[in-house]
Amino acid sequence: MPVKTISEITELSTETSTPVEPSWLANARGVEDMEQARAWLSVRNIEDIECITPDMAGVARGKMMPSKKFLDRSTLALPGSVFMQTISGEYPDETDHFQYPPQDGDLRLIPDLSTLSAVPWESDPTAQVICDMVDRDDQPVSYTPRNVLKKVLAAYTNKGLKPVVAPEIEFYLVKTNENPDLRLEPPIGRSGRAVAGGQGYSIAGINEFDELIDDIYHFSEGQGLEIETLIHEEGAAQLEINLHHGNPIALADQVFLFKRTIREVALKHGVYATFMAKPMQGQPGSAMHIHQSVIDLETGGNLFSNPDGSPSEAFQAFIGGMQHYLPKALLMMAPYVNSYRRLTTNTSAPVNVLWGHDNRTTGLRVPNSDPAGRRLENRLPSSDANPYLALAASLACGLLGIEQQIVPGSPVNAAANEGSNDLPRGLLEAVALFESEESLAGILGPEFVNTYAAIKHGEFETFMQVISPWEREFLLLNV
């Protein structure tokens, strides 16, 4: 069937003779097929398209091409090694469990047209679309992040379940800093003074960056991204964005695009936006809290609540699975050496997998809600985590708990972030736990587990080549 023109798609009302635009044509985000994509791009005069996909770190990789080439369905490919790089752009050593493909062949990018949107910060009309990765046989590449999350969601579907998530992403605004040896500093707000900490939920703190925040809203709206709320957190120029609950793939896509958007907005205003877990000494870390619930596809109800409104056995088992498996999956939620600087005692960050009702000092919090809204908040993930992998890990832990009917510990009513730290205290310890857990490999896929562990080993070795200021301060003249 030939592709319709815009005039053919826009029908005329017989009563008013007023053009009626199809709803999908006006949408800021997403179409169903290439026919709609052609019309959508034409209406917006889009010249170029960024075909992007998240790598292991959640960095956008891909290719830019003219929209005509995109609509002609030109083949798009990336070498498989793109998904085996460390954050510094190097490649880990091969092991008994991890080897590079001998030919480093191409993986194909398959655009998910539901993610098609404008790139509002570009000067020329530009669009972006998130892609999935398939091999030469058109099979999903098992170790790529979006496919890892899809694999976990398929495990839920096979049990007649559908998870629902709502991420909260914290980040800092900091002064531009071209020298990595210098400490980061809070930026200057509209008052002309450096922003101070201790301004949790401060409207004045938000108003220091009114124009920047307005651009975050404008750029988000231009991409069809929905912000539920925006607040100032405890740290100096630390902000948090809350997203509306929904499908985990759609929410991971939103976090992926939000990170790009916020960085671009910050650069436009002469500052940096950073999602490092602990960017500044003496300031709180940045988290990506994940609210989770599960829908029973047969009944349409919340699996976590019984018909009488009480917590269900499945809810208890979900918590039990989180408690048992989260320390072993923490690598996917705290992926860098810096991540473990956030997870320290006597701070606002969690240091355990205890759970409690509306207790923000535990790693797992059950917010106050009615039975239909009963959910579990995972407070362990850092904002530096790849959203696809953090969601995949968190949901996998809960599903394993349901499958294995794991009984959770008792809820905690007291402060739980003081004293001992029950989580892995560093990257290598987290890698060792991650590699050793067969149940996680079973649901995430052994190829992903082996690849991801190898990358993290490689990143640690790169980190060990750097001499820190602490070493120069205390070892130079004292040992």
Mass-distribution shape: globular
Give the second-level CATH assignment, the architecture of the largest domain.
Answer: 2-Layer Sandwich
CATH topology of the largest domain: Creatine Kinase, Chain A, domain 2
Count of discrete alpha- or pi-helical segments spanning 4 or more residues: 15
Number of strands: 16
The total tally of domains equals 2
Low-confidence stretches: 1-7, 9-18
* Mean pLDDT across every amino acid position: 93
The rounded distance between the terminal residues' Cα atoms is 78 Å
Q: Largest sheet, described in full?
A: 8 strands, mixed
Radius of gyration of CA atoms, rounded to a whole number: 23 Å
Secondary-structure content class:
alpha+beta
Helix content class: 25-40%
Strand percentage, roughly?
A: 15-25%
| CATH class division of the largest domain | Alpha Beta
Q: What's the CATH H-level homologous superfamily of the largest domain?
A: Glutamine synthetase/guanido kinase, catalytic domain
